[in-house]
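Hello,

Our lab assistant flagged a job as stuck in the queue for most of the afternoon. It eventually completed. Since we weren't sure the result was trustworthy after the delay, we are filing this so someone can double-check. Below is the sequence as submitted and the structure that was eventually returned. Let us know if re-running is recommended.
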Amino acid sequence: MSTVLVYADKPEVREQVKLAIGPLPDRELGILEFLDAADGPSVIDAVDHGEADICVLDAEAAPSGGMGLSRQIKNEIPNPPPTVLLVARRDDRWLASWSLADAVVAHPVDPAELTEVVVTLLRRRHAPAPRAQSSPAH
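-- returned structure --
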């Protein structure tokens, strides 16, 4: 089971994200669990304690925007979960590169696009690490 942390200061945005992805977007991943976060400290605490396998962050949330939280997660948490930023304006996509987010999705969300991004990032996170090939002994 994977946990999707959904951060937005507005409950209706969190609900839209959860409805868009749904509890079973991919049979291989199994049922998803959702964790709501309404403020920045809750996001950092959950990620710091390993409670999130992926974070969907509203870039427009206040007072802590998703871009700043994504950058903080990537810079401060060892082996951080992937982050997906929701941006209201397509022109903000270039700004999202500063955040070190793994993906950017326009808000309001297109359920198919958001689901595809989340499934792809979760599969990548849960994929077995490639085994290092040992060099032949001489």
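-- support follow-up --
The delay was a queue issue, not a problem with the job. The result is valid. The mean pLDDT is 91. The longest strand covers residues 2-7.
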